[in-house]
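ok new one. same drill as before - structure tokens go in, u give me an amino acid for every spot. 750 of them this time. try not to just spam alanines like last time pls lmao
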């Protein structure tokens, strides 16, 4: 065909695909010159520079959205004349000549925003698939959605009807398209969106003479979308689809009715779920108007259609001449069908079903469930039975730190003797972290020290006995609080006051360097115990700590078995205002985008998706900010591996934390990597991949190398210290009532 023969009006009923010219080829240069000389080029549109800039940005995401990319841009041009890059596309129905990237780069840019909704592997798999679409009203919405997503590499379109004015209440078209065949119109719209997609048009519709060509000619159909309004074509197309093992989708644009027929999985499945019985295509083709309407009502399910559609069925060819449809319903149906088609083509588990995907008032996510667990009943007046000073001491002890704020202790009180008892049922949150019982040992040591500090602040003696009933008992320590003792020193009184003011300093603000006096005071706080404090403000230590903490937190958040525990421990106080344990996410000192990210990340499917692809590192970037802003990074190691060693380390931790609070130095435990390293020595470590195990081992070895000179010292806690900023919790970290952690027994007499 000579370009001078092109007349735009010739393309009303036929589809002539756009012509591509590459001006690096002499023949195309000549052909395009002839085209332009003919006068059929109505407009030239050259936005290649914008596309190249877009490509440069997509290939260098690490430079940020506003980063400089002039060097990348020049590399893409590679010294070529700008007009020879990519392709020039001529659209004969509009006379437009458009300059675009070549196909690989064009597809790369156009589908960049599909990540991670579609992975690169999924995108490549879909490029080899072809979707056939019969009926281009709802079918138009399906076709354009599939084309926009590029969730198929080829699309076959069939419709004999032409666009009229009444179609413009639901089809994306304009008055310039009136009279154009609907299949031709859809093909043009797809070509204007993506001229590289392969589109085949059957502008006479489908019948028993050309249906084999529709399914098998050119690109073979992998999935059929049937949206026509003739019952006999509905049956005919399904007969052929079933024979070939091709799944069929249909959406009725009423109450979101969706039909899925998996003939690829069920080759003997009845057509249309058996709704039409034994009716044949010949019988349906020869039915009168009433019979056709009855068949359509049966196919769409007359008992389930909306009241207004039911009225329309009755009024068809009386007061109505067309099946009622709205743009909102058609576009919703197109999105639903395109989504299901993509899932089937990717091999997801999509069963045959008829269901309604209704949107009566709009789309809304299911409200977040809040905890409905019943609170433990409070023992009747149990607390009031305690001596007043013992009661006050234990109320302060309830403010002790615990892993995930689980408060996993119980006080068995006999007069002035307090047994500190472990509550196994309160340790469930840290099940995977508890393989070596480090958490509970350190926690019960800390609460023991709280009792001692609270007693001494009142001038009362406090004697501690370890493992009074043996190292296998639930009783970890026994504290005997005297009725008097030596007068409390100013330092002891200050430590007692710090029991109320102590909190985890999670600020993002950078702290100042610790003074020598502050460092000495923290070391002195630990000296009475067998544990040892390690502390450093060196940049290399903070860097190694930050990388290890970020990796530890990422794995804790994304690994499926740990994800549940993590989001059982961390929660939004606004969602569960009555909760009395756990750590409110509002207190992590994170910004609004990060809070939103954590809300999304709390969904197991999202975490699984990121974990499988090794992604999600950026979600916890604030962890590195914590490290960079630390005044110092610290750790406490136990003297040995016995239960008593770790309980003493817990006492040392609480004493140091309180001393830091008095000095105005914040403490923030960060233990994910430490406990993940512990998990590797037991069956709990099986939750990690081989690569993740190696990563944990490397990061922990690096951390020990830069901070802890004793290679064999068992870690009890890792933390950062922040001097200067004071950022109290946004909401008070909750505590359970003392009464729920209290057993009172008659005092024994000797």
């Amino acid at each position: 065909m000579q370009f001078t023969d092109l007349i735009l009006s010739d393309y009303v009923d036929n589809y002539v695909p756009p012509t591509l010219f590459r001006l690096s080829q002499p023949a195309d240069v000549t052909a395009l010159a002839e085209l332009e000389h003919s006068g059929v080029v109505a407009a030239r549109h050259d936005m290649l520079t914008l596309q190249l800039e877009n490509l440069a940005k997509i290939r260098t995401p690490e430079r940020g959205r506003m980063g400089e990319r002039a060097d990348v841009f020049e590399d893409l041009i590679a010294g070529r004349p700008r007009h020879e890059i990519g392709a020039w596309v001529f659209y004969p129905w509009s006379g437009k000549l458009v300059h675009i990237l070549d196909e690989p780069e064009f597809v790369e840019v156009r589908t960049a925003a599909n990540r991670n909704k579609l992975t690169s592997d999924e995108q490549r798999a879909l490029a080899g698939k072809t979707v056939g679409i019969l009926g281009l009203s709802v079918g138009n919405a399906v076709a354009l959605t599939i084309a926009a997503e590029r969730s198929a590499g080829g699309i076959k379109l069939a419709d004999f009807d032409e666009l009229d004015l009444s179609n413009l209440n639901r089809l994306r078209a304009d008055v310039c398209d009136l009279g154009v065949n609907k299949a031709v119109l859809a093909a043009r719209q797809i070509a204007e969106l993506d001229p590289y997609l392969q589109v085949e048009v059957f502008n006479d519709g489908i019948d028993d003479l050309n249906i084999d060509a529709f399914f098998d000619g050119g690109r073979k159909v992998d999935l059929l979308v049937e949206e026509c309004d003739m019952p006999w074509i509905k049956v005919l197309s399904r007969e052929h689809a079933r024979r070939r093992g091709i799944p069929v989708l249909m959406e009725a644009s009423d109450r979101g009715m969706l039909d899925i027929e998996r003939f690829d999985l069920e080759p003997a499945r009845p057509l249309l779920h058996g709704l039409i019985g034994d009716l044949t295509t010949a019988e349906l083709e020869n039915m009168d108007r009433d019979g056709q309407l009855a068949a359509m009502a049966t196919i769409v399910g007359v008992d389930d259609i909306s009241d207004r559609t039911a009225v329309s069925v009755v009024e068809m060819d009386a007061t109505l001449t067309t099946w009622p449809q709205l743009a909102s319903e058609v576009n919703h149906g197109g999105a639903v069908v395109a989504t299901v088609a993509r899932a089937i083509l990717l091999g997801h588990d999509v069963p045959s079903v008829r269901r309604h995907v209704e949107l009566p008032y709009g789309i809304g996510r299911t409200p977040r469930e809040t905890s409905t667990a019943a609170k433990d009943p409070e023992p009747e007046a149990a607390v009031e039975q305690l001596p007043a000073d013992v009661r006050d001491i234990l109320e302060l002890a309830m403010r002790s730190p615990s892993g995930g704020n689980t408060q996993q202790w119980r006080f068995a009180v006999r007069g002035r003797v307090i047994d500190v008892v472990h509550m196994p049922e309160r340790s469930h949150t840290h099940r995977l972290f508890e393989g070596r019982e480090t958490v509970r040992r350190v926690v019960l040591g800390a609460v023991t020290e709280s009792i001692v500090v609270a007693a001494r602040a009142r001038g009362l003696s406090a004697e501690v006995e370890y493992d009074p009933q043996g190292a296998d008992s639930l009783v970890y320590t026994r504290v005997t609080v005297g009725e008097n003792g030596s007068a409390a020193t100013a330092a002891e009184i200050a430590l007692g006051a710090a029991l109320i003011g102590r909190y985890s300093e999670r600020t993002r603000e950078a702290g100042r360097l610790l003074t020598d006096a502050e460092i000495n005071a923290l070391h002195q706080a630990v000296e009475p115990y067998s544990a040892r404090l390690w502390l450093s403000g060196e940049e290399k230590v903070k860097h190694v700590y930050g990388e290890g903490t970020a990796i530890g937190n990422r794995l804790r958040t994304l690994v499926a078995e740990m994800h549940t525990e993590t989001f059982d421990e961390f929660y939004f106080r606004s969602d569960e205002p009555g909760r009395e344990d756990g750590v409110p996410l509002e207190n992590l000192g994170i910004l609004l985008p990060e809070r939103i990210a954590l809300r999304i990340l709390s969904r197991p499917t999202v975490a699984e998706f990121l974990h499988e692809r090794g992604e999600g590192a950026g979600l916890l970037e604030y962890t590195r900010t914590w490290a960079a802003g630390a005044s110092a990074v610290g750790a406490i190691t136990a003297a040995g591996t016995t239960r008593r060693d770790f309980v003493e380390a817990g006492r040392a931790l609480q004493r140091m934390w309180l001393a830091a609070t008095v000095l105005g130095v914040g403490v923030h435990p960060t233990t994910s990597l430490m406990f993940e390293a512990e998990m590797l020595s037991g069956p709990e470590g099986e939750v990690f991949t081989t690569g993740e195990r190696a990563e944990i081992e490397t990061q922990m070895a690096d951390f020990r190398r830069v901070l802890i000179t004793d290679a064999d010292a068992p870690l009890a806690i890792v933390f950062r210290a922040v001097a200067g900023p004071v950022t109290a919790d946004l909401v008070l970290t909750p505590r359970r009532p003392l009464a729920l952690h209290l057993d009172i027994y008659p005092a024994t007499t000797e």
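The radius of gyration is 36 Å. and btw The longest strand covers residues 715-723.
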